[in-house]
Amino acid sequence: MREKEILKMAKKGYVFTKEVREKNINTSYLTKLVKEKKLARVARGYYVLIDSVPDNFYIILSKCRKAVFSHATALYLHNYSERCPLIYDVTVPYGYGNCYKNSNNIDIHYRKPENINIGLVEMRSPFGLKIKVFNLERTICDIIKDKSKMDIEIFTNALKMYAESPQKDLNKLMKYAVKLNIEQKVRNYMEVLL
Question: What single DSSP character describes residue 83?
């Protein structure tokens, strides 16, 4: 009976331990459903139906609570790149990132702890789950700062799209550039593009 209730909750493709607890169902039923190969545990507190595709964006961030999607991955999430990431860009404060040491599909970028919240927003992954990502202005600053590590086509297209976008916020962009100590670089690119 309880297993059926959990499977009904997972009809959307996934279920969280938190949801099961909120329904006053013992979480041991999740373990039982995993043993019966009806659910798969893909991250802490996150289970998917066996025939469902797990949300890699959610799984990656669940491994390190200080991680934020950035660079090319953030561009993809903001629809500034059509390339679905094979290697995911995450930014973490210096001293973090050990949670990704065995992951060969993660490109880790390190920043000062006091800069990790600049431009941090919460948005929905392509699967509809909440994830942390840098906003567009912070992402533009990051790709300019790390241009040598960027795919040149993604870099160029993103800057052109940003320059042409009516939603661009140049004041916010320059404010972030000052805080991230790359004001002159950002100013140079914007002067050429605008």
Answer: -
Closest CA to 23 of 42, 50, 4: 4
- At 194 the pLDDT is 67
Furthest-apart CA atoms within the chain: distance in Å: 65
3-state class of 119 per DSSP? Answer: coil
Say yes or no to pLDDT of 54 above 80: yes
Q: Which residue has the higher pLDDT, 101 or 107?
A: 107
Task: Please name the amino acid found at residue 118.
Answer: I
Length of the chain: 194
Q: What is the pTM of this model?
A: 0.86
Token pair listed for 42: 């893909």
Termini Cα distance of the chain: 62
Q: Which DSSP string corresponds to 82-134? A: ----SSEEEEEETT--GGGTT-TTEEEEEE-GGGTTTTEEEEE-TTS-EEEEE
Closest CA to 134 of 44, 73, 54, 64: 73
Structure tokens of 123?
A: 């948005």
Nearest CA among 160, 61, 187, 118 for reference residue 73: 61
| Nearest CA-CA partner of 186 in 152, 157, 162 | 162
Helix, strand, or coil (residue 42): strand
CB 85 within 8 A of CB 112: no
Q: Which two tokens stand for residue 114?
A: 């006091």
